[in-house]
Sequence to fold (157 residues):
Amino acid sequence: MSLSIKNHLIEGADYFMSPNQSDRTENIDLIVIHCISLPEGSFDNENPKKLFLNELDFNNHSSFKSLKGLKVSAHILIERNGSLVQFVPFNKCAWHAGESMWDNYHDINSRSIGIEIVNSGEVIIEDYTAKQINSLSVLLNSLLKNYNIENILGHSD
Fold:
């Protein structure tokens, strides 16, 4: 299985344009993989999507209060069933890494593609579904074919 990327969008993926994006100032050479669940450990909801679209109701859970005012997005969200949702075209900068640096790179957002996987913050491979792992593998292969990726990082890097 492979994915087609046309005009910096994955063909066949659901696409919801996040307002939390900007023009790139660097060439794409990194992929950063994150995990997300809102609230923590809760997977069967639309909260990550709502967060990336600035539609999250901060009164729905006490843990959401700390997210108020946060403008965040990812290029891709991988749902528990393996489906892909795109929020930012790959040629644009998604706001997923905050003010960060890695190696000698600054402004990681401008040079990276951000992938969020619906999962808890725990680093336990069994918590990821087989469908998520398969989708991530296919997605990474497609991105490596289409962009000059030098490194794939986890958010903790």
